[in-house]
């Protein structure tokens, strides 16, 4: 993570550095924030206050930081709390009496004594939290500069525009006491800075050497004399920094006329820093003679405990002097000597920062250079530079190159909004005080970073409502209450180019840019829509930048080229309902086109939502002929979320909507009008922001912002078999550890970098996943399984792992191969996987394709599913697929880790292989329908035994396969044997047994066996457990016999007495019904349904099962057994309950099964492709987008298999609207792609055979005639009763006034007459 921690005040006293506990720390003031960072440029902590901060001071001895506010002074103390990084906590708050609200300076002394310079001098003892003032002195003029000596013996102070330094000498040395007298140190000009010499170690007694610098350009060194003298300090030496010669003198200083520049900055490299930097230079010295000689000179200087004075000229030059023998007790004369003179500094971005104001020199034992410079520039930026002390003080070089490592900048006020260009290369950040900063994305150390490009100061231009960056990143448009402005941001300070008045009658939604063609004269069209759906278009005309123009040449232009913004046209958005929100679509795709035609292929421009939850996507295009904006609604879906609080759309046809409570996230696919994900957050976690991006291969990522964190959601592969989620959170960025300020906004940059605006700071999270991120639980849960060498380096890699193409040995791919009828391909994959996992080394180097060529996925003949002959690969024979191979592979999967598979996925793969082994045993007995059901039923049973399966049992997809099978006798035998011939209702429901079994006699036989198993399942044989089933079979006598032996049951007497009556009598039917209602009141629903059957009211019994027990299968089983498949009870249940349920849930498998059972085979085919609501009457129009699980690519397989199965189903296929089958196949191909089964999607579109709809009527007649002559084994004639030839003949003309045709004359037939026979 990179941080832009905020702009620093231009006052040098707002920046401080200190070494504490062996680590270097930097602290500075930025607006209302105190920013603390480490010497490694990592942000540690940000502390916010209610008022703007003024100055600060950092105590090296205790690590305490004092910061001044207008009303008080806050002192913070470090606390490690057993962690590696220190954190600062509030220690004490100091309030000054008779304070005018301005603190000019803070300084620490020994023993935690804090000097406060305001209108007077205040000395506070802050050793404990009970801080107290121990000395106070009011002065005639407010103190501007004040510095405490390191041993707390002297105070040096001066006021504004004063040439005298007042030196305070301590008289009382007891702890908690202080008395001072003073003397003066006169200067000929105004004193601009003063600093005490820093001791080499804090344990060494301070020598109290004072350095002063005045406006005359003279640097002075003052040393102490006898402390009992009236004037305790003497001038040791002075250095005229502006003179033509650079020799020290004790005479009169040179004047300003010598050419000294008053805006130059002086900095000291103290002895401690100089020694460490020299040591690092020795360690990394080059082996040439010049380097060794230069290094020897530095070592000699360091041995003399010298300090180095640096002067940075505003023109970009550096001069340096050495000062030696600076000791109060030294008898030697202070020696000042020149080291380098006016060496040019090569620091790239410093020329745009307004010149340095303060420079801190820091030693670094970690960096090879050994020396770091923290430069405080006048524009509020802090620049970090690395430089070798050898290069910095090289007198033979004319230029010194400073390696700029990083620059710190940001805002002074909290950021509340972020905008970016479409490509994500430029960013505009806006604060609450209308401070707008334009940033350009750059790279530093191969990591994304933001370089400040321009500052837009709009404080005097009125309130800013909305902002927009033009695509080139050099111009910005701002919307005000009464105007729209165009800004040129090519220089450090933006310039207003043009302003256009505007009248806004309602709240504007956003400034949105229309997609444009590139022209020689660049013209953009920007529009704004208000809440009344009225919009205004503005034409923005700017010069076209040449591609070869460099940034520096553009910025160097003194005059700004023309640029205009004018009102172009007005429009009304063609929406029928009021709009609650309208936001621009995040252009997250790297590639998009602007079409000549306004159609659904154009990129979405905006997405809107109504107060009732209707989401609409819009695209627009500027009509160059009529000069009007043309709008087209590309999609519409109902979310049923009233009063939504937030919406965000992407150009990848994804929309995220937040409910009114701000705690429910819903993600929608606008192209298919489907709900893909619903996620509820904890109470108190309110969603505040939504941002979209995508990977280079168009896989979407959603950033969901909260007050103190941003959670990233990734697309997951569709998992229809396990009903898995389509989205999941995979990474979390938390800001509470570094700043307490809530997040204002977040946005994606290009290449997957996420920028979070928090307070006045910008946090830049790259796409890279660092090694320490592996400890993040959200990342750890999605990490590559243990034992694999392949690791995910970026979030794009991670998302591709979660949503990219699957290897062919993935369990989902194998299952889809089976569903698609590619059993031979699935077996080939299993054989190759078994061969490649014989040992751990081979498993780690396994190819993702298993060496199977792409043609094998599409060209394998699947007509013969039982062809299991040997196969040669690269000249080596592969074993046959059999039960032994499957057992061996299952054992290998339990011991060897397979790449790209998690542990759970490997267990699922082992279950599929076991299921395929079971299928191999019965491959000669089952048809392809039965093979599909058996494999998934066995897999479900294995997963349930390992507690992995869904509690609902097999889905209606598997039920549909078994229902269409012609080998149900074998399936019945296999299912019952799976449960040891003791199948109970819960097991029958898991298998869907009574849904797919078609033989009425078998239904009753197996229900009776089930009733017996239910009765025998417990030690206490309770007839209540089996009453419903025996009464459904109309076997009351058996039930009476069971009650007769249930002596232990307290209900035996009353039940026997009731059952002994004749229930053909209406009286006893009524009594049985009353008992049923009484049992409903006691919530004994199953027993109540049994009494409804006793009362011969099967409809009520079925309703109880369906409604109260929520058991659809039980209701259908009771109806089928009690009344038969042709009875009114089942028909009414299917028509009034099951089909509306299927329509509500979008369950096309259930709908097709129900229509087929009702003998509406034409509707069974149509329901697979058309909306179920259009085929039934008793249903509510849902309107709301359905969950994505309602779609399933296997539907296209079922459609293909039943389309030509009977004449009725063929007739249903012919009634499907033109083009619907084409769209359906493409949709299923997209679903395959979304599941990670790309090769199956390609196979589907490559090998699909469409129904020839050109032979609608004649085709049916031809089939009818063919079936009358020869029994077809492929298409069943099921239209005997309702098929009439005359219904399918074309309309005949009226027989009135018909003319008799002429006599027939024989003519020779042509070859065209035989075209129908395919000769």
From TrEMBL:
InterPro entries tied to this protein: DmX-like/RAVE_component (IPR052208), Rav1p_C (IPR022033), WD40/YVTN_repeat-like_dom_sf (IPR015943), WD40_repeat_dom_sf (IPR036322), WD40_rpt (IPR001680)
RAVE complex protein Rav1 C-terminal domain mapped to chain residues: 613-1244
Gene Ontology annotations of biological process type: vacuolar acidification
One Gene Ontology term, aspect cellular component: RAVE complex
Name the UniProt record assigns to this protein: RAVE complex protein Rav1 C-terminal domain-containing protein
Native source species: Arthrobotrys flagrans (Nematode-trapping fungus)
